[in-house]
Amino acid sequence: MANAKCRFSGQPLHQTFIDLGMSPLANAYLTAEQLNHAEKFYPLHAYVSEDTLLVQLEQFETPDRIFSDYAYFSSYSVSWLKHVKAYTDMMVEKFGFNRHNQIIEIASNDGYLLQYFVEKGIPVLGIEPAANIAKIAQDRGIPSINKFFGVETAKELVIQGKLADLLIGNNVLAHVPDLNDFIAGMKLILKPHGILTMEFPHILQLIQQNQFDTIYHEHFSYFSFLAIEKIFAAHNLQLFDVEELSTHGGSLRIYAKHDNADSPGISDRVSHLKTKEISAGLHRIETYITFGEKARQTKHKLLNFLLSAKAEGKSIVGYGAPAKGNTLLNYCGIGKDFIDYTVDCNPYKQDLFLPGTHISIFEPDKIRETKPDYVLILPWNLKEEIMEQMAFIGEWGGQFVVPIPEVKIYPCPIPDRLLIAS
Q: Which domains, and CATH codes, for the chain?
């Protein structure tokens, strides 16, 4: 990455955050016909900008190649639907949105969130780059356009009179290769007194909870509040509130407005979080460049467990086929010699194969048929939900394995503290 530059400031990137070796695109699932063809692998090497402390990857593939036909559907997680339903209720109650307002969501996926505003009779518009996913939202009666978002799309919407009273972007900011174009576009379509909210994984949690597997090529950037505040301020957008969320292993929900808007006022949570990040060292380069050792230790522990289990004749399968799981498996060199197969609730992933490792993906009922000794939970951020759904593995003495933040074995019945957490 000798010639690469920070995608916000344009300064050269030299400092390594973590090097996870070579890996395929995390959502490039394979058909049976593709298994005997060559796969593309790219460096999965994250750097930290010395001037902005923004962690980022080099771009190897265009967004068109990554997102035009996508395999991630938000509606397949019950806990995620519960999360966004609570968000819509809270935003209506807090800001009084009604049928006279316009809600716009960028990267609206299959309509998972906008459906709840539709139920309240509030006009919505989804902007979704993946054609296959946008069509599902449209078929469900959720107005959606199939476009990548940036200044060009924003100008088209302005001409059509589509301006947002509430502009939403959940787990999209990390996927944006051109941050300045994206945020400038949001500035354009936000009404003068409009409100913007965005959710994204918090790099403080990534570092403290050893979440290295959330790094993959589809995630171009990883944000602290300190970094994102600078980026938004450069586009004359002011962050006036922030929430720390438990989703995706620990996320932030930021609230922004035009910097010349009188209200809402600045919440105390803004200064509190900035103080928290500074106390954790997120304002110093040293905090970032020592992260890689944690990942190496987890790799060794996970491989040691798998080798011991196999030496005892135990069977191991996976649960889930998330992008983070593909980073973990490829970095650790875990393939079909360790994991018999994995399962996923998403029918669009079933009967396909994981990129790089070529592990088969089945529907969840496969676990009842084969009765494995261990189930490795790849979407560890949903472990409580998954353990409840799959608690029946205790009938034959099966146990769960959770790899992040450290390798842990959970027997059935599930510990009460996990059930309470869910």
A: 66-289 (3.40.50.150), 292-421 (3.40.50.720)
